[in-house]
Amino acid sequence: MCLFCKIVNQEIPSNIILEDDDFIAFHDINPKAPVHILAIPKIHVDSFNEASADLMGKMSSFIQKIAQEVNINESGYRVITNIGDNGGQEIKHLHFHVLGGAKLKWGHFSDADPKGHF
Ligand code: 5GP
Ligand code: ZN
């Protein structure tokens, strides 16, 4: 069973912010912003590549609720999902990073040369 499935099953403790029938949201163990929350489906889905339109619709509503719950919906925030090796996905259970609580920089996305793929 993967790490995030264990968090869903409460075999590994986490700091849960919001939960419904389909999803949970909890604080990232290694925050990269004043607010850094992970939102995951309770069912195991490897990544965004395998996420259905139905799941993504519900996920969007759930992430919007998280933003309201922690009061970053008006100040703004960023939602990121890493996919596969090049995307930097370490945990192979679909998760969305919800980052906020400060003005976020964009510069760390310039770590790869933007020229050259196409
Ligand atoms: P990825 O790199 O796969 O997009 O993101 C995985 C995230 O999970 C990282 O930001 C990492 O800090 C977080 N993480 C890894 N292990 C744990 C854990 O046991 N508990 C929590 N709350 N977060 C974790
Ligand atoms: Zn899993």
Rg, nearest Å: 15 Å
The third-level CATH topology is HIT family, subunit A
Please give the oligomerization state of what you see: single chain
Count of DSSP H/I helices: 3
Number of strands: 5
Strand order of the largest sheet: 1-2-3-5-4
Describe this structure in words.
- The protein is of the alpha+beta class and 118 residues long.
- It has one domain: 2-Layer Sandwich (HIT family, subunit A).
- It is 23% helix and 21% strand.
- The chain has 3 helices and 5 strands.
- It has helices at 3-8, 53-69, 84-87; strands at 16-19, 23-27, 35-41, 77-80, 96-100.
- Strands 1-2-3-5-4 form a 5-stranded antiparallel sheet, covered by helices on one side.
- The longest helix has 17 residues, at 53-69.
- It is globular and about 45 Å long.
- The termini are far apart.
- The model has no long low-confidence stretch (mean pLDDT 94).
- The site of guanosine-5'-monophosphate has 14 residues, from strand 2.
Keywords:
118 residues, 3 helices, 23% helix, alpha+beta, binds guanosine-5'-monophosphate, binds zinc ion, HIT family, subunit A
Spell out the blueprint of helices and strands.
Elements: H1 3-8, E1 16-19, E2 23-27, E3 35-41, H2 53-69, E4 77-80, H3 84-87, E5 96-100
Antiparallel strand pairs: 1-2, 2-3, 3-5, 4-5
This protein binds guanosine-5'-monophosphate and zinc ion (ZN).
Zinc ion (ZN) binds next to helix 1.
